[in-house]
Amino acid sequence: MTEPVHESAVALVGMAGRFPGAADVEQLRRNLAAGRPGLRELTDAELAAAGVDPATPGHVRVGGPVAGGVETFDAAAFGLSAREAETLEPHHRLLLECSWEALERAGYRPADPGVPVGLFAGCAFPDYLTRNLPGLAGEPGGKPLLSAGVERDSLTSLVSYKLGLRGPAITVQTYCSTSLVAVHLACQSLLTYECDLALAGGAALPLPQTGGHFSEEGSILSPDGRVRALDAAANGTVMGSGAAVVALKRLEDALTDGDVVHAVILGSAVNNDGRDRAGYPAPGVAGQAAVVDTALAVAGVKPETVGYVECHAVGTPLGDSIELAALNRVFGPGRAAPCVLSSVKPSIGHLDRASGVTSLIRAALNLRDGVLPGTAGFRTPNPAMDERFTVLPADVPWPADGTPRRAGVSSFGVGGTNAHVVLEQPPSRAPRRSSGPHLLTFSAGDAVALDEVTSRLRVHLAAHPDVDLGDVAFTLQVSRGHFALRRAVVVRDHSDALAALADPGRWIDGETRRRDPRFRLVAGGGSEWASTASAAHRLLAGDDVPAPAPTCAGALSALTAGLTRLGIRLDESAGDILVVEGGSGEEWVLETLARLWIAGCTPDWPALHRGAARRVELPPYPFQRKRFWVDAADVPRPAALAPSWRLEPQSETGLEGRVRAAGPWLVFAGDSAGEALAERITLAGSEVTTVRPGARFAALDTGDFEVGPGDLPELLRSLVVVPRTVVHGFALGGAPGDVEAAAELWPGMVTLTSGAVGVLGPDLTTPDHAALTALTARHVDVGVGAAVNQVLAAILHEESPLAVRGDQSWRLHHEPCELTGHAEAEVHRDVPDLDGRRGILLVRPDPAGRALAAQARAARLAGRGRWTTVVSTADPARETLAAVAAADHLTEVVLSGVPPVRPVSAAGPVQLPASARPRPALGTPFVEPEPGLEQEVAARWATALGYDEIGADDNFFELGGRSAGAVRIAAHWNLPATAVVELPTVRLLAARIAELRP
């Protein structure tokens, strides 16, 4: 059916996605075939949850929320902590899952696939950041979370990091054409051998998902919630939500490697309209025609051989007409039959950055299945369409005429970046049936997921009785075995596979805790060695290997040679024994191989199949999703907040136990109050290291230290133990020291000041120190004569800021205040002389702003000026400042950015120790650390990360470790700060420590 393989042809070998009304590609195919739309009317409850009033003029209560929602995620599968997961942007979440699934459906491991894999993808604007996480950047540890899990720049690099993809990782942003441009770039990367497998796709997940839209005159959005693509009645589009990824491979390689091929990309092109259009957002006829013409030329095919075009057509009168005009320029007259035009958007809406790859998937399915697609709701052709084209109201079979089926796919972006891809039907694949027995292997992150994997496989086999079990076994072996919790089943044929997968008594289960262990073969009982030797030879021997002798020695020899050929390490001195019984047959051989795999051996699966196996599409991993989501504020944030201090004495009950639980301590003491604090911690029975100001760095015989300017890095390297709680109190003595540098080294540090805030008024004695209160998330202001127990209790309290006066504590609150009225007032910024002046002082919520606000308050309290400080992250409107001026009884008003929308927990809050968490499910099997240094390193990691055990080959950062923790661990052994980054496993780090020891 197809012509000889074109050297630049690219195979589409895997597809994954989540769409409106469809949780995967197969469900999308079924929905489209059955005419079930993904766009739907939204319920009153959904609109209420989205905060939308459907009675608002112009509101259209139709939407296309993505199937399964965006609030849940399987954090454990990707090695993410709860905090990382809840702040992870929805586009990043779904692209992670879809990339994983695309690799699995292509028959490749989703983690460390074994070949260089490139990733090209883009996404829509991160609404989650502005709606749900507006204060993330200002939270402790928030900026790393923002850069890695929210920024669009990190979209592809995060996926590549989590999945171990070593090809190019390129984030693409061209508005609506993003994902098809990504496909084009992926093809180029494959053809220039930058990678051997490429993923391409996009995601668009606007929030709220169920809010509908507002239509107004001149808008591209449909006033009635219907998308009439290519129709004379087209009047606008509806935005849907979704994400999709395709896996691509050079066609020649895909056929050689036995990959599934859904369709063949013959050529692609990308260009821009330039200035040849009505305006920046408008499409251009010339550019669209040129990109289609170029893609056909690259593919080496004529327009008349293309039987169907999956159009961009979003249902706007102008956009659809321009697209048709462009196609008219390329597809000349004189066709034997009109070219079928279609668009998936009337069914699922316009998926924006995911629309191009979704259209590609639909076209590939139609080519594979021989379907000329209909367009939902189509009635009357757009006037720009002539006899060269037709639009079908429903699907019809694509008749065979002796030539390969071909299709084009278009995607055009706001801003003029156009993309077109030319596809061809896949090469035919001859059916076959391999003789048994077969070894089915798979793994999962937990027992529930493992059972679901088993169930999904059984359902799939029942629905596909003609699938070759040898190919199924091979696909499972090379793509589904990266988790430590594993299961294997040996089956004879298809019906036996259905029975075995439903029978727990036939499952071989276990958890891998070692990597490539050694085994020793030992002969057991039995006398029928001929069957054992024959089974080992048939299943394990290489080509042209003579049959073994039908004896015990022959059987052992055949097993030894066969297992060694598969990469199993056999050693006569090994402690692990593999007993070989006479009379064992082929099923025993495969069961033995299964147990070796579960024990941690890494068989060469392609060698087991002698290079003749093929990949088949199988169900993907069942993610065990849980809710990881930060809700947007239920009510609008107050227009203005007035700060005030409330009396909140801190409980001293169980203080000594809490002090011990928070240890070891590191206390910077510059006066008698700091010394008294360190002494009280010692009396409580906790380990404390005291640091005092000095001319230069000095390590004292007592175990304490003195530091001068710039000495903190040396102090960090010199600490024998990593402190759990750090208190910086140099400011109590008048000279703050390097507080900012200390905050960078110990982000969860508690900063102590004295008189930097005014709780009672006259107690604001050192306004210049107010800048220190903004350097760390946790701050306690200590008044003269403050009780040491109350200071200590305040330090242990998770919420800040606090102030201690005598034996009482006070906490800062922000109360909503209504600003009414109007008055004139001068507005100043950074006023150097506050005395005797009055007006509004506008400051930012940063250290400099804190200091200036404190100085203005001190001046007002002393009668040397009448200032109202306005704290805002941006310049307020003139009307807002006039209202503040009318309320000049207020000393300070906070407008935006402070306090955060939700309570912020400091990095590493001090609390009573909870039980250690179990080690998360990693792609790396657990390997017991060797006694001695490896166990010492593992124990320190376990304490720092909060796990009950750490394996010798576990990666510090995959376990959730942060760079700050890595620096502290390196400092413990006097290693460079980058040591853990360069040597991220227990075994590697222990080896380096051993090298450096005398």
3D architecture notes:
The chain is of the alpha/beta class and 998 residues long. It is built from 31 helices and 39 strands. The protein has an eleven-stranded mixed β-sheet, sandwiched between helices. β31 (725-729), α24 and β32 (750-753) form a beta-alpha-beta unit. α10 (285-299) crosses α11 and α22 (672-683) crosses α25 (788-796). The radius of gyration is 34 Å and the shape is flat. Mean pLDDT is 90; it is low at 897-915.
Quick description:
With 998 residues, the protein is of the alpha/beta class. Helix content is 31%, strand content 19%.
What is the C-alpha radius of gyration, as a whole number of Å? Answer: 34 Å
Mean residue pLDDT: 90
Shape assignment: flat
Which strands sit side by side, in order, in the main sheet? 7-6-8-10-1-11-18-17-12-13-15
Beta strand count: 39
Largest sheet: 11 strands, mixed
Number of helices: 31
- Strand proportion, as a percent range, falls in 15-25%
Oligomer: single chain
List low-pLDDT spans.
897-915
Helix- and strand-based class?
A: alpha/beta
The helical percent reads: 25-40%
**Termini distance?**
71 Å
